[in-house]
């Protein structure tokens, strides 16, 4: 059984990641939303919902979340060489230069946050520092 203190620490870390105040840059990327509004593709709540749902189903669910699961597994198992390989594969498969830059910037920012908050032991911190660029 996992101690309550450990569960609370994990929950606090998760809540910290969900905060719009978190300075990792995720809130500065619109994923084309602004362009869709300018082009008249989004004009009400229904069209915005369809746009967001499409992004969740066609981008996150089919590409980013499965890759996140692979990267998380490698991290959890301490398999840093495989983590580095999977990270490189993911970056190489970003659909555009802009998406790759976004991914690298957010990865860098999140790593800086994790290191500054000392979320992990020294071995994991060194592994995190060694992956460049980081997705």
Radius of gyration, taken over Cα atoms and rounded to an integer in Å: 17 Å
Helical stretch tally: 6
Q: What's the overall average pLDDT, rounded?
A: 83
Q: Mind describing the biggest β-sheet?
A: none
Structural account:
It is a single chain. The chain is mainly alpha-helical. It is 70% helix and 0% strand. It has six helices and no strands. It has helices at residues 4-18, 33-38, 45-76, 80-92, 97-116, 122-130. Helix 3 packs antiparallel against helix 4. The radius of gyration is 17 Å and the shape is globular. It starts with a helix and ends in a 5-residue tail after the last helix.
In terms of topology, how is this protein built?
Layout: H1 4-18, H2 33-38, H3 45-76, H4 80-92, H5 97-116, H6 122-130
Helix pairs in contact: 3-4
């Amino acid at each position: 059984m996992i101690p309550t203190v450990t569960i609370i620490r994990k929950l606090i870390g998760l809540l910290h990641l969900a905060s719009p105040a978190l300075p990792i840059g995720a809130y500065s990327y619109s994923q084309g939303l602004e362009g869709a509004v300018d082009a008249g593709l989004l004009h009400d709540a229904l069209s915005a919902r369809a746009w967001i749902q499409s992004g969740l189903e066609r981008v996150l669910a089919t590409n980013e979340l499965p890759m996140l699961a692979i990267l998380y597994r490698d991290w959890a198992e301490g398999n840093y060489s495989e983590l580095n390989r999977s990270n490189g594969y993911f970056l190489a498969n970003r659909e555009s230069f802009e998406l790759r830059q976004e991914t690298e910037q957010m990865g860098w920012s999140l790593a800086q946050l994790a290191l500054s908050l000392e979320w992990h032991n020294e071995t994991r911190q060194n592994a995190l520092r060694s992956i460049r660029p980081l997705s």
